[in-house]
UniProtKB/TrEMBL annotation:
Keywords: Membrane, Transmembrane, Transmembrane helix. The chain crosses the membrane at residues 6-30. Residues 71-85 have a biased composition (Basic and acidic residues). Pfam families: DUF4834. It comes from Dyadobacter beijingensis. Residues 45-85 are annotated as: Disordered. This is DUF4834 domain-containing protein.
């Protein structure tokens, strides 16, 4: 029983104080699944992008900077006019 306690104690110390061991353990437990999910999401995004664009069509990736500000009317200069009959 004491040997098991010592092994668990050393294991917890390694996890707590050795970053390399912690990263390795995290990669074993979570890293592979995380990489697979990222690749799956990337493939789905690429497939959706291909489905959205029509062959021979034009697609614009970005909007001009300050697109929302330029669409608002802020007033302007007024010109006097005379009515012509």
């Amino acid at each position: 029983m004491k040997v098991l306690f010592n092994i668990l104690f050393i294991f917890l110390l390694l996890i707590a104080f050795v970053p390399f061991f912690r990263r390795f353990l995290f990669h074993l437990l979570v890293g592979r699944q995380l990489i697979k999910q990222q690749e799956k999401a990337y493939r789905a995004q690429q497939q959706a992008e291909r489905a959205r664009t029509k062959p021979g069509g034009i697609r614009v990736d970005t909007a001009p900077p300050n697109a929302n500000e330029s669409s608002r009317f802020k007033g302007g200069e007024y010109v006097d006019y005379e009515e012509v009959k």
